[in-house]
Automatic annotation (TrEMBL):
SUPFAM superfamilies membership: Putative DNA-binding domain (SSF46955)
The organism's place on the tree of life at top rank: Bacteria
Name of this protein: Helix-turn-helix domain-containing protein
Organism: Cohnella yongneupensis
One Pfam family in the UniProt entry: HTH_17
Chain coiled-coil ranges: none
Domain Helix-turn-helix, residue spans: 7-48
Amino acid sequence: MIEIAEFLTVDQFAQMLDLHPRTVRRYIHDKQLKASKVGAEWRIRKEDAEMFIGGRFENLKRKATNDIETFLRGIDSEIDGKLQVCTILDCYVGTPEAIKISEIVMWHMNETNPHRGKAKFQYFYDDEAKKGRYIIWGNPYFIGKVLTAVSEVTA
């Protein structure tokens, strides 16, 4: 049986590919991308996402690793501001918090708050370790809000 954490939302998949969510929904409706309805939302299995993007999934992981290494070396990133933060949040599947954490990250990424500044994230699922990994970049205000919200559902 496939666990919920092995599914991506349309927003997560769109973010991974730097596409608008409407474009991803169009791929689903045109049957170019396999997805299932869960309630009112589409969910995309990791395997179907990998098939859709071919080898791009591994390239995205490499790009995320390169982005982190660039950040650690102090080279300017695409995140604006004098203060920049990068955090990695691992969430093990099968926990009640897993879905809530996904919702929290997506809500904050889509939030229209002028203090948020420019932010980005990438999500990867490690099938061997059975965990999702969120890599989030932004200013301290934004990262603090995300981590505070996550801590409130995991306390």
